[in-house]
Design goal:
alpha/beta; about 40% helix; Rossmann fold; about 325 residues; seven-stranded mixed β-sheet
């Protein structure tokens, strides 16, 4: 994504009078302490104009957001923002938890209409915050939770969890995780246990890493992007990536693409790469920061609390490909 975005900026003639954009990387090694240390190094040593991304968990993103608030520099995360309404320097390039969960709730309530649901999630704060949102969204329709379990990241043998799910035989299973390997492991091990039967399986964007596996056929995916979307930003994302790398991008790449371009457009809107207060203030509160993302048209306003007002697309794995699903109104 760094290579793609830097080239896209060159192709459009640069920003601030023709200047290129350089993305400076720092590896926080999945550590909250390293995330804060990295933010400090990037701001004070590298003199960056904004901070983007976060880490493998919301905790690292929260640490960088806290640093941004204390040091008055724009931070564009790729996930939800802690205490978003109280933040002045933090945006996200993608979604709030409510916006991420909403299309899955619509899928359940309007199309699948399950009477029972099971949850299998990564044991991280992100998933633990989202599961109650799924439950609250489906409860008015009478959907009952029959199983809820959180798996330690890196667990290789999931057969005990999957056996229990088969025993409970819910109408719907929601797998909530940003971890590619978890979906691949589940697809393989459930197939070894004889398949899913009538259980409808729903997962987040990383499902696409497992979509060519037999155990993932028929799964529904809450996706950031999929080939076939006709938004101007979706087509540009697809065409530019394909021209550079000779293959289609994946939906999870949007998590990295959107924050980079959001920060770039914020700098361009401010007309400066050195006045950090102005960059962050206009991005967060002016109502003038908007651009065409792969997920549709992003628009940041004072009332949107740092969120771009975007929504995912529900797809289904069919014949090892993602196919867009039309959800009834």
């Amino acid at each position: 994504m760094i290579k793609l975005v830097e080239q896209q900026v060159k192709d459009m003639g640069g920003i601030l009078g023709g200047r290129d954009v350089k993305v400076v990387r720092y590896d926080n090694r999945a550590s909250v302490a390293e995330a804060a240390a990295g933010a400090q190094k990037l701001m004070y040593d590298e003199k960056v104009s904004a901070l983007v991304w976060g880490g493998v968990s919301g905790a690292e993103g929260a640490a960088i957001s806290t640093f941004a608030e204390e040091n008055h520099i724009l931070h564009v995360d790729y996930g939800a923002i802690d205490n978003a309404a109280q933040k002045k320097y933090s945006l996200t390039g993608t979604l709030s938890y409510t916006d991420l969960v909403g299309p899955v709730v619509d899928l359940a309530n309007k199309l699948l209409k399950p009477k029972t649901v099971a949850y299998l999630a990564t044991d991280m704060a992100d998933s633990r915050e989202r599961i109650p949102l799924y439950e609250a969204g489906m409860k008015p329709n009478g959907t009952q939770t029959v199983y809820e379990q959180y798996v330690t990241l890196g667990t290789a043998d999931l057969t005990s969890y999957l056996t229990k799910i088969k025993y409970e035989n819910p109408d719907m299973l929601i797998i909530d995780s940003g971890n590619n390997e978890l979906y691949m492991t589940i697809a393989q091990q459930m197939q070894e246990l004889g398949g899913w039967g009538t259980i409808k399986v729903v997962g987040l964007a990383p499902v696409e890493t497992a979509m060519k596996m037999a155990g993932a056929q028929g799964w529904y995916v809450d996706s950031m992007w999929v080939a076939g979307l006709q938004y101007p930003g979706a087509l540009k994302f697809q065409n530019d990536y394909q021209a550079m790398f000779g293959r289609l991008p994946t939906a999870t790449m949007v998590y990295y693409y959107n924050p980079l371009w959001t920060a770039i457009y914020a700098i361009q809107l401010a007309g400066t790469d050195t006045d950090l207060e102005k960059i962050a203030n206009l991005a967060r509160f002016s109502g003038k920061l908007e651009w065409d993302t792969p997920m549709g048209h992003a628009h940041y306003t004072a009332e949107s609390n740092g969120y771009p007002q975007l929504h995912p697309t529900i797809c289904q794995v069919q014949n090892k490909q993602l196919v867009i699903v039309d959800i009834p109104e």
